[in-house]
Amino acid sequence: MMAGMIRSIAHRLAGGPGDLPVEGRLASFDGATGWINSPPLNREQLLGRVVLVDFWTFTCVNWLRTLPYVRAWSQKYSDAGLTVVGVHTPEFGFEHDALAVESRVRDLGIDYAVALDSNYSVWNDFANHYWPALYIADDAGRLRFHHFGEGEYSYTEMVIQQLLVARGARVDQQLVSVRPKGLEVAADWETLRSPETYLGYGQSRGFRSEDDELFDVSHLYTSEPLGLNQWDLAGDWTVGKQAIILNQAGGRISFRFHARDLNLVMGPEREGGTVAFRVTLDGNDVGESAGTDVGTDGRGTATRRDTFQLVRTRGPVTDRTLEIEFLTSGVAAYCVTFG
Fold first, then answer.
1. What's the distance, CA 275 to chain centroid?
2. Helix, coil or strand: residue 137
3. How many other CB atoms are found less than 10 A from the CB of residue 60?
4. Do the beta carbons of residue 163 and residue 310 sit within 8 Å?
5. Does residue 311 contact residue 291 with C-beta atoms inside 8 Å?
6. What is the tens place of the pLDDT at every residue in 48-107?
7. Is there a domain that residue 315 lies in?
8. 223 and 176, same structural domain?
9. Is position 191 within any domain?
10. Which of 184, 219, 234 finishes a domain?
11. CA 32 to CA 38: how far, in whole Å?
């Protein structure tokens, strides 16, 4: 009874479709370079349906944490008139690979239409600037709502419901319930004190030896403790614009962080390679704080470039130092994210 009352009040506070501003027209998908799970779609074909457009790229942990809701909305409301279109706009070079995107779509259980946007054409048509970004259009093709980043799931779903009801559908006002796992689990925002950190020189920050010779980092690692959100390298690395590349086995990345989770976008530099690595926390085995992609001994392998969860802290969240040692060469590491 109480839950139903709260939902009813929330719906009234959200208002009806007439209270949602018209933000423009649903942009075209004509610039898509390919489609997964669907033949090509265009704006005219989608008239008469409520359309949710979700911009994503497969290594983005912020998007991964929104995915359980988008999947659930597609499954619950598609028969009532909702069409979800995921627009995959790549951030890193390797994310342009259509076969890699198709593989992740299967692995992530995405069954709705996905437009490949390798040239950023759809991104530009929507004047979008963010991953993740969500836009909702009504059955007349008018944009009525948008949201950038994580959160606002209840309000977003109520917008979907209101626009579906406005087109004559009957919907269950019960909001979806999701059970995320691994990288899809929401961040622990109350304890998160570390920002997303890129490792390539194009957007790098926090590198302790920032002023040293850019492409010769073999001498940089010292025994001096890192400050919070600083990172450093040991070994023979080449620093590129998007990624750092390990030239000889035994190289290490160390990072001082404050978060429940630590994730690393990485993988073999060349297709078909395998990366073997070992993670430690404060110089000790990672143990029960191992992320989903490592064992309790800290060991793991990567056979493709993707986002890997290295740490999920059990117990109080404090300042910790992670070190990842790569037992093979040919590693490409792009970005460290936290949750």
1. 22
2. strand
3. 23
4. no
5. yes
6. 999 999 999 999 999 999 999 999 999 999 999 999 999 999 999 999 999 999 999 999
7. yes
8. no
9. no
10. 184
11. 12
Beta carbons within 10 angstroms of residue 203's beta carbon: 12
Nearest to 264 by CA among 282, 250, 252: 252
Kindly report the CATH number assigned to the domain that includes residue 56.
3.40.30.10
| Length of the chain in terms of residues written | 339
Does the bond joining 132 to the residue before it have cis omega, within 30 degrees of 0?
yes
At residue 199's C-alpha, the angle toward residues 56 and 242, to 5°, is 60
Are residues 36 and 110 located together in one domain of the fold? yes
The encoded tokens of residue 258 equal 């404050």
Contact by Cβ (8 Å): 252, 323: yes
Tokens standing for residue 155: 């309000």
Q: For position 213, which CATH number holds?
A: 2.60.120.260
Positive or negative: CA dihedral 38, 87, 17, 14 = positive
User: What is this structure's pTM?
Assistant: 0.91
Report d(CA 265, CA 322) in Å as an integer: 15
For residue 334, the enclosing domain spans 197-338
Quote the CA–CA distance of 275 and 294 in Å, as a whole number.
12
- Under 8 Å between Cβ of 208 and 225: no
Q: What does the pLDDT look like over 321-330, one tens digit per residue?
A: 999 999 999 9
Half-sphere exposure of 308 (CA within 13 A, CB side): 28
**202 forms bridges with which residues in the sheet?**
none
Find, among 175, 181, 185, 128, the residue nearest to 153 by Cα.
Answer: 175
